[in-house]
């Protein structure tokens, strides 16, 4: 049968002296502990603590801005949401009309921050940015933290009065935190943009944080 089907094999012989050894195995790569780790079996407390630690690490990266992929690799929107709500609440009640309960101010701040972040993200993507939509929102949202700190300091300064000295102190604080927010956001987003279009991306970021800074600086409590 072999000679009929495969004529060339009739003259081929295998020597009995040649050992045929070996084992058939499927190579399996080494697994790291993180690959085998599953969050399905962890407790609610562990999940909350893990998320809080992740948010805290991102705050640290914003306070010490440098070119890092930490905010881009594990993005989330919990930190930006907390910062946005905190800033909106502190800016609430800035109208001179005592009948106003501050509701419109809260909505205005909330819309300005999120709508502005979305516009900047879309602008970045249209200019050829390499990061995703939510990664950009994460960076822009976390970088609002210096301005949130500035708002807290301004409210404390306004407790002592609203004179010229108070305005100068608030101007210095807001100006410093505005520069901090702008530099921190560009440090994370600069490498994701084409070299010849970085200025077109930085300019909207500058305007975004400038508007928020102006709202903080012009805030006067009822």
From TrEMBL:
Give a GO biological-process term.
Answer: endoplasmic reticulum to Golgi vesicle-mediated transport
User: Any transmembrane segments, and where?
Assistant: 75-94, 106-127, 139-161, 167-189, 201-220
UniProt topology in membrane: Multi-pass membrane protein
| Compartments reported by the entry | Golgi apparatus membrane; Membrane
Q: InterPro entries of this UniProt entry?
A: Yip1/4-like (IPR045231), Yip1_dom (IPR006977)
Query: Where do the Yip1 domain residues begin and end?
Result: 62-215
Q: Where does it sit, as one GO cellular component term?
A: trans-Golgi network
Q: Which UniProt keywords apply?
A: Membrane, Transmembrane, Transmembrane helix
Predominantly, its location class is Golgi
Q: Which family does it belong to?
A: Belongs to the YIP1 family.
What is the protein named?
Protein YIPF
Question: Which organism encodes this protein?
Answer: Chloebia gouldiae
Taxonomic lineage from the root: Eukaryota, Metazoa, Chordata, Craniata, Vertebrata
């Amino acid at each position: 049968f072999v000679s009929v089907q495969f004529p060339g094999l009739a003259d081929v012989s295998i020597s009995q002296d040649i050992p045929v050894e070996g084992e058939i195995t499927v190579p399996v790569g080494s697994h790291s502990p993180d690959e085998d780790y599953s969050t399905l079996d962890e407790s609610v407390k562990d999940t909350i603590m893990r998320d809080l630690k992740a948010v805290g690490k991102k705050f640290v990266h914003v306070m010490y801005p440098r070119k890092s992929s930490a905010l881009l690799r594990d993005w989330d929107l919990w930190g930006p949401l907390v910062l946005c709500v905190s800033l909106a609440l502190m800016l609430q009640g800035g109208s001179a009309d005592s009948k106003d309960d501050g509701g419109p101010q809260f909505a205005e701040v909330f819309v300005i921050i999120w709508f502005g972040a979305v516009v900047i993200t879309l602008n970045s993507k249209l200019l050829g940015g390499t990061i995703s939509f939510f990664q950009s929102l994460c960076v822009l949202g976390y970088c609002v933290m210096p301005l949130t700190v500035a708002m807290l300091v301004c409210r404390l300064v306004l407790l002592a009065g609203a004179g010229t000295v108070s305005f100068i102190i608030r101007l210095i604080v807001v100006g410093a935190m505005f520069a901090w927010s702008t530099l921190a956001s560009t440090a994370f987003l600069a490498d994701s943009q084409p070299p010849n279009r970085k200025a077109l991306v930085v300019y909207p970021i500058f305007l975004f944080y400038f508007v928020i800074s102006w709202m903080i600086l012009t805030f006067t409590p009822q």
